[in-house]
Structure formats: C-alpha cells, structure tokens
Amino acid sequence: MKQYIARRVGYSLLSLFLLSVTIFLFVRVTGDPVSLLVEPGASPEDIENIRRQLGLDQPLWEQYWHFMASLFAGDLGQSFYYRVPVLELYFQRLPHSLLLAAVAMTLSLLIGIPSGILAAVRVDGFWDSAGKIFSLLGLSLPQFWVGLVLILFFSVYLGWLPSSGSGGVLHLLMPAFTLGWYFAAAHMRLTRSSMLEVLGSEYIKLARLKGLPEALVIGKHALKNALIPVITLAGINLVVMINVAVVVETVFAWPGIGRLLYEGITFRDFPVVQGVVIIGGAMIVMVNLLVDILYALIDPRIRLES
Amino acid sequence: MTVITPVTTDTIVSATPFWRLKGFPVIPVSILLFIAFVAVFADLLAPHDPQIGSLARRFKPPFWLEGGSLAYPLGTDHVGRDVLSRLIFGARVSMVVGITAVLVAGSIGTLLGIMSGYLGGWADQVVMRITDTWLALPALTFAIFLAAIVGPSELNIILILGLVYWTRYARVIRGEVLSLKQREFVRLAVVAGCSSRLIMWRHILPNVINSAIVLATLMLGVVIVTEASLSFLGVGVPPPKPAWGLMMADGKKGLMVGYWWLTVLPGICIMLMVLSANLLGDWLRVKLDPQLRQL
Amino acid sequence: MVSPSPSTTRRNVLGLSAAAMIGATLRTANAAPEGELRIGVHVSLAPTWFDPAETPGIITPFMLLYAMHDAILKAMPSDPMAPCLAESCIMSSDGLSYALALRKGVKFHNGEELTAEDVKFSLERYRGAAAKSLKDRVANVEIHDPHRLTIRLKEPWPDFLTFYAGASGAGWIVPKKYVEQVGDEGFKKAPVGAGPYKFVSFTPGVELVCEAFEGYWRKKPSIKRLVFKVIPDESTRLAALQRSEIDVAYSIRGELADELLRTPGLTIKPALGSAPFWLYFPEQWDPQSPWHDRRVRQAAGVALDLKTMNEALTLGHSRLTGSIFPENFEFYWAPPPPVYDPARARKLLAEAGHARGFDAGDYYCDTSYANIGEVALNNLREVGIRVKLRPLERAAFFKAYSEKKLKNIVQGASGAFGNCATRAEAFVAKGGAYVYGSYPDIDALFAEQASQMDRAKREAILHRLQQLVHDKAIYAPIWQLAFISGVGPRVDQSGFGLIKGFVYTAPYEDLTLKGKA
C-alpha cells in the first residue's frame, strides 16, 4: 500500500510538472502582455523598457528556471497587471470562490439527488422524465444565457435580487443557482444509476421481503449506500467548480478565481495565469489522488492492477 | 469492478425494430433527425443569405409582432440579417462542429485509451500523464489559449473542442480495456499468437465501441454548449458565420432591449439539440452499456 | 490631449485661465461634501493605477488619477493643458529648459505641503510607459526654492510638454516623504496624493472607495464618497444602472445604448476619445497584390457606409473625421470628409481590373470590435470586395499586428497619447511598430519634422505628411470612436465630455448629485 501511494504521489507530481511547462509555454506563445500595457502606437523604447521591467527580455529557459525556483520558495511572482504578489490576489479571491462553489454544490445536490431518486424509483414514469429533463436543462443552456435571464427576471423585472457583485446572501443566489444547475445533471445521473444498482442488490430485496415499508427501504437503506459515489463525485466537482466558474463570475461580476484567471488570460498576465492554473491543477490532481487512494484502500484489487 | 459481458451490436438489433424498444426516446430522436434534415437542406430551405444583411432593416421583430413582416418571419439581427436563415444554416454549423468535434475527440481518445489500456507499460504511462495534465487545466482556459494560437475559424473550433475533450474518452475507454484484457477471448487470442495490433483492432475495439457511442451522444451536448460559451468569451466561431452559440452570445445584449428573438430562438435550438442528444445518450447507455456511470 | 504651443507657454497665459476658473467655481466652495456616487467600471482596477509613477501608456488609469492625484499641468475643461499644481510653466527661448512656479499652500491628503522637492522626486521616480523617452532627454531638475524649479533638457525637444504634462504620469505629483517612508508597495496599498479624493479602501476585482478631500486647492468636492464598482459584463452593468445600484455605467454600446435612451431617468453620455479606427492594407507594397493599386484601396474607403454604421453602433456619436489622426491632437490636418459612394467604388474597382469584384482574403480585427467588422464586411461585399472576418482575441490581435503577421485587411485603432507626430511614427513612418511598409516621400517629411524646432514650420510639414497619407489611401479611416456611458437619475453634473478627448467622468470635484450643492 505504501508503495502504491508513493507511486501515485510521484505520478501526480509529474503531472504537475508537465502542467507547469505547458502553461508556461502556452501563455507565452499566445500573446504579448506588453502590447496590452501600452496603447498601440507607443514608442519602441518604452515598449522595450516595460519588457525589461517584467523580466521578459531574458531567454525563455531562464524565465522558466526563475519561475520554478521561486515556485519552490512558495512565491508565484508578481502580477503584471496588479503589481501585487499572485498569492495575495489568489487568497483574496479564494473565499469568494469557495463560498460560491459551496452554495452552488448545495443547490446542485438539492436538484440532482431528489430527481435522481425519483428517476430510479419511478423508472420511465412522469417524475422520472420531469426530473431528468429539469436536470438536463441546466446542462443544455449556456451559463451566460441562464445568468442573464435570471438577472432580467429577478433583478430588473421583479427587483428582488441585486444584479451583480458580492456582499449578502442575496448576491449569492443567482450565480450559485446558475453554476449549480449546470452540474445538477451529473449528480442526477449518478444518483439514478447508483440507486438502481443498490435497489437491485440482495439486501434490499431482503428488506423488501421482510415487509419493511417501501419509503423506509428507499429512504434509509438504499439511499445511504447509493449516495457514497454521489458524494465522492460532489467532492471532485466542488474543486472543479472553484476553477471553472469563469462565465458565471463574469456575468455576475463575482470576484472569484475564475475571473482572476480569465482576466489574467486577456491581459496575458503571465504570473497570474501560471499561478492560478498551477494551484487549480494541484487541487484537482490532489483530489483525484485522494479518491484513487481511498478506492485502493477499499478495493485492494486496484492496487495490484496498476 | 464487476465483470462486463462483452456486448456486441447484434444483441441490440434483435427481433423487434429498435424504435419499438421499451423507452425508446421517440421525440428526442425525431428532433435530432429534423435538425439533421434542416442542416443538409439548408441551402434549399433558407429564404435569405445568412451572412448578408443591411443596417437599414436591423432589429425587425418576428412576423407576428408589430413591425414584423413575412419577408423575415423570425425577424432580423443587429446587422439586419434574417434570423430564420441564420437558424437554418446554424443547424448545419452546429451539427458539423458538434459531430466532427466529438469524432475528433472520440478517435483520439479511443485510440489512445485502447493503446494505453492494452499495451500498458510506458505507453500507458505517457498517455495517462498527459491525460492527467490535460484534466488539470480548465477546459475553457485551454480552449481560449488554443484559439489564440490557431486563430478563429470553424475548423479550428472543431480541432480545439476535439483536443480539449479527448481525455474524457481516453480515461473511460482505458478503464474498459483494462477489464477486457482479463477476459477469456482476449487471453485466447494472445495464446493463439495474434499480434497486439490485431487484438486491439479485432477484439478490443469492437467491444469498446458501444461505450464510445454512448459517450459521443453525451459529449455532443457538452461540445455545443462549450462552443456557445467560447462565443460569449469572444473566441468562438467567428462572425458572420451563422452558429447558434454565436447568435446567442451576440444577441444576449438585445435581450435587455426587448429583442428577445435574437437570443431566445437560437437558445431554444441549442437546448432542444443538447437535451435530445442527452436523452438519447441516457437511453443508449442503459441499452448498450449499463456499466458506464460516471458521466 | 493637445499640448499648447511653446510660444503660448512662454507668454504665460496659462495662469490667467486657471484664475478665471477658480472664480467661476467659488460659489459652491462652502457646502460640506455629502452623498455617494457609484460608478460601474468596465475593467478590473489595478493598484498600479493608484501610483502615477507606474502609469502605463493607456488611458484607463487616468480614471483614478483624476480622483486621487493632481498634476503640474493637466487637461481640464477650460484648457487641454491647464496649470494645476503649477501656476506657470515657462519655456526658455532656446527650448532647453522649463521654469515651473508651483501653487502655494497645496496640501497632500496627509496634510503635508506640496513642494518642489516632491515635483523633482515624482519626475525622477517615474517609471511608466514613457519613462525612457523622458529620461533620455531630461538633463536635470534644479530646485530654486520650495515653490520654484527648473527642468533642463539635454537638447531641444518640441514634444516635452506633451509627455510631461498630464498624459504620461510623470507630471502627477506624489509626496516624497510619505513614499520614502512606506515604500512603493506600501504606497499602492495606501496611496496619498494631492487630488480631490482620498483613498479609503480597495478590494481587487470588486471596488475602490474614495472620500472627498476637503482641503483640495481648487475647490471642495461636492460629493462625499466615490465608489468604483467593477462590473465586467456590459449587460449586467446596464441592469445595475437600471436598478440604481450604480449611478454611472461606463461603456454601454450598440443596442444596450438604445435601451439607455428608452429607460426613463437614465441619460446617455457620449464622449469622443482620441481613438480613431481604420482599415489598413498591409499588402499595398506588394506589386502582386490587388491592394497595390491605389484605386482598390480608395474603393474600399468609399464602400463603407460610415454614417449608417455610426447611427447603428454608436448612436451617431462617433466622429467621421476621415483621418487616422485624432482631431484633438496637435498638428492635426483635417482631410475632406469621407463619402459613401458604392457606385464610385465599383467604378474604381472596374478601372483597376476587378469589374466582377475579387476575393480579398481575410479581414482581421480585435474581437471586441468585431461588430464594426461585421458591418464593414457587408459594405465591402456589396461592391464586390469579398472578405472573410477573422476576429482575434485582443492580446493575440495586437501581437500579430505588431509582428507584421497580418495580411489583406486589418481593422486597427489606437488611443495612445501624444500628438500627430507620435502617431505618424507608430503608424506611417518607416520602422514604426505597426508599419508594414512606407513611402520615401512620407519618410523624408517625418525625418524633417523631427528636428524642426519652429512650430509653424513643423506644423506645415506634418500637415503635408497627413495629406500624403490621405492621398495615397494608405488607410481607409472609419471614425473616431465615441465612448458611450450611462448616467442614472441621481446625478446632476456627471462630468462627461467636460474635458475634450477624455472619455471618463472628470474632474471629480466638479461632479454633483441632484438636490445637493
């Protein structure tokens, strides 16, 4: 087991290394931050000057070396745009992203799990279709559109909710719903299939034979077991949500990580893009690692297999 | 996990015709067929050139509203182009982009998944490390960068979406192959002295193709919605191409002004297509590949 | 922003206009500031913008500089180069030195008095976009007494004031003692300036809060608090304005501006910036290319229905100048107004041998302005110039544009500060950052003006240069873009359009809310 974990950790580090090289090169190939920090038409000397200030006049490998060296020292560099340390920016945004992701996940599970259970219990019935379609709708509509319709209806037309920004609970509702709805379908599907699997198992059949009321069988015995994979997926998705909420955060002016990254990309703010992607990547790799190890602990065959 | 019975296609095409099978999603399939029909015959169906407009007749509402006319039955957009014609040609763009992108992702992913799963060793290592790296990079971020490198065009959007999503296939297919490898018929083939290539081609591929098909129907929706989001971020199919996602992103400003048809109509089209693909995918999954769960 | 002619500064008329302005604003000077103005900003605010020394060459930071800081000379409603912290700025007759007399009794937000030391310090500390241009040419700064100093140049530099005053950031003054005490990083966290509003708090990506500085020399601001809220999405910004969550919404374009007009209580505030748009034909120097023929380029120019485009996209508020130089720049030459004449375009094309039109390849533009491209594409197609639109994301577009990788047609724009000479350097003269080819007669004129100290002669040369740019149809100009913002019902004086060529609300001390002041 120890050997297995060591190997998995090694792989994860390798993935992160590859990620760092990829993002480092990507961000440099695709645009020049200097041309965005000056208006087109600035003098060549001024452009050269800024390039030097940002350390972009050095050869590529030297820049990479510098980047990695400071990364190991726990320093992600300074944002070109904000001129403050990337870590500082990151930790200012992180609480917002965590909050948004947590509420979105709650809403997502509130939609996904009940519709999944209904779908499993009433296969091909009305509630099966209704729940399925509602969950799938979240997946079928682009988030920017859902967000805008919500703003129009709840903010402009009804005047109930603030259109954007962060602050109170009210600010959270629309962005969290938009984000959560998108993920609801995945949770619905998994709940449904895992419920079906559990319902088909011996011990549920036994419980039914014993004449326990159906509601108790489903609500207590089946659900408890069926939800384990769903919660696992929710854990992974929570981390994903923190990193992919670009569109929602842009529409609702929510100051999270996704927007930090997106703005970093538009301004070719190399340190920000590198930092956010690598921290996000580390989170995703880590969650996957944890899940793998947990599964290996539960099911020893996996260990032998790989 | 559990042992998988190799399902071959002929167990599905049994005595009853498929559309009479239990739970066959008649409506979704009809919708998809209709969209495909429109896409194929777009040139004949569209009343106007979808890419040419005139500012003189911009923002005309659909015919049933005041100010609308039957010449432009679903109104005109911000450049004065006919919305109906754009929707019709948009079906073609969405179908082409969606299906080819899924094909690209599916081919790369299936191929690498099979190689990685069957060959194991360093091939497996390389593919899996790349996959892990890929998955750690948010899809939209990746797409924006690729768009910046290759520039926007319909073809490039297809490549981008394919390159972004192949890893999902690779992972699922590899998992399937790992369990197929333990099965009797594969072992027999090895004993019989078949080459690795032959085994992968003849014995493994036919047995993972079902999973690939199910994944494809589900991915179609993801790809189309991502395409729309890329347009929102300004790196999607370039205007004036009539793509539904682009129409939605362009028209979203009009929503606030009351020009709802600009974004609601393409929105309905996308929604119907993605929803139908997903419902079909769900059905196929139950029929073809009950083991495939986490999607 | 226009710089005055050296002869004007020599005569020191600047002090007079400032005095007149103070008189005009005296009546509001006694009321205590009250109320809050919330501004919905379209870009993410950067702390570097709190520090004039770091001003990059873009116009956005001035949105904040006008609130927190003040400059020796800056653009004001009365005068594009009004003396603010200086009472006068006098150029010596040899053009080698500028004598500044500072206004007395000006205080920074922390109560310290502004002196010549601070002015010297700020100039030497400046490391923004134009730092090298300035440092290469400024010999030294000599302080005579706390309120008088002289800036000496190494050689005569006709554009010195264009760079120093206002627009580059070097002439915006920070307190020396405070900066030395807290350091550069500390300064960005808690900036102190001499402007009408003092810094209160900043949350990156969310908002910046400022409060009125009652000791501001020019006048006491009327509004107590300014809140700059970051709302990146245009539609959301409009929704927030409609709900009165904000009082000012920057950059509302196209059909959203229509909605602004339609919503009761909201007003639309167009402001003409210094950003002309154009089509560029990078292949005109290649004899094989159809664009080599001047008639083809002219045809593209007259094929554009600019008036309709202007009505549709910017509600008619952009200016059709027919030039790639901003009309508010020094040395500007006004070309004949652009015409829309598709028949003539077809005729020109036919003469050039393209009677049936031709496939012109790609039309590159920045994604954020693809809406202009879409319309232009239609226009070009109508006369037979068939092009494909290739919108590139902003960063990628400017990289490709400046690396000379674009072909066929490029839709460009520039809002860089400077004057017509600096524009010509970047876009017309040989070796310019966005120049794909050049013409010897234009290059000769450009070289000639660069060393010409006599303003009138220099102007004449630059006019001839601009005329050649027009005659050769190097570019097909589109318009000078109007930046459209929305203002809510609570605002009385919004400040838009007060300063020529400035697109944001300013000067902040002049803004008022309804029923106040």
Outline the secondary-structure elements.
The complex is a heterotrimer of chains A (306), B (295) and C (517).
Chain A: H1 2-29, H2 33-37, H3 44-53, H4 60-72, H5 86-121, H6 126-140, H7 143-157, H8 169-199, H9 202-209, H10 214-244, H11 246-251, H12 257-266, H13 270-298, H14 300-305
Helix pairs in contact in A: 1-13, 5-6, 5-8, 5-10, 6-8, 7-8, 8-10, 10-13, 12-13
Chain B: H1 9-12, H2 26-40, H3 42-45, H4 83-119, H5 121-136, H6 139-150, H7 154-181, H8 184-191, H9 196-232, H10 244-257, H11 261-288
Helix pairs in contact in B: 2-4, 2-11, 4-5, 4-7, 4-9, 4-11, 5-7, 6-7, 7-9, 8-9, 9-10, 9-11, 10-11
Chain C: H1 6-11, H2 14-25, E1 34-41, H3 62-68, E2 73-74, E3 82-83, E4 86-91, E5 97-102, H4 116-125, H5 131-137, E6 138-145, E7 148-153, H6 160-164, H7 176-189, E8 197-203, E9 207-212, E10 223-230, H8 234-242, E11 248-249, H9 254-262, E12 267-280, H10 294-303, H11 306-314, H12 342-351, E13 358-366, H13 370-383, E14 385-392, H14 394-402, E15 409-413, H15 420-427, H16 440-450, H17 455-471, E16 475-487, E17 491-493, E18 512-513
Parallel strand pairs in C: 1-10, 1-11, 13-14, 13-15
Antiparallel strand pairs in C: 2-3, 4-5, 5-7, 6-7, 8-9, 9-10, 11-16, 12-15, 12-16, 17-18
In terms of DSSP E residues, the strand content of chain C is 15-25%
> Can you tell me the residue ranges of chain C where pLDDT is under 50 for at least 5 consecutive residues?
1-29
Proportion of strand residues of chain A: under 5%
Number of beta-strand segments of chain A = 0
Average pLDDT for all residues of chain C? 86
Q: Radius of gyration of chain C over alpha carbons? A: 24 Å
- The gross shape of chain C turns out to be globular
Describe the biggest sheet of chain A? Answer: none
Low-confidence stretches of chain A: none
Strand order of the largest sheet of chain C: 8-9-10-1-11-16-12-15-13-14
Number of helix segments of chain A?
14
Estimate percent helicity of chain C: 25-40%
Distance between the termini of chain C: 30 Å
Please state the structural category of chain C: alpha+beta
Specify the oligomeric state: heterotrimer
Describe the overall structure.
The complex is a heterotrimer of chains A (306), B (295) and C (517). By secondary structure, chain A is mainly alpha-helical. Chain A has 14 helices and no strands. Helices cover 69% and strands 0% of the residues of chain B. In chain B, helix 6 (139-150) packs across helix 7 (154-181) and helix 9 (196-232) packs antiparallel against helix 11. Chain C has a ten-stranded mixed β-sheet, sandwiched between helices. In chain C, strands 4-5-7-6 form a four-stranded antiparallel β-sheet. In chain C, strands 2-3 form a two-stranded antiparallel sheet. The radius of gyration of chain C is 24 Å and the shape is globular. Classes of the chains: A mainly alpha (306), B mainly alpha (295), C alpha+beta (517). Chains in contact: A-B, A-C, B-C.
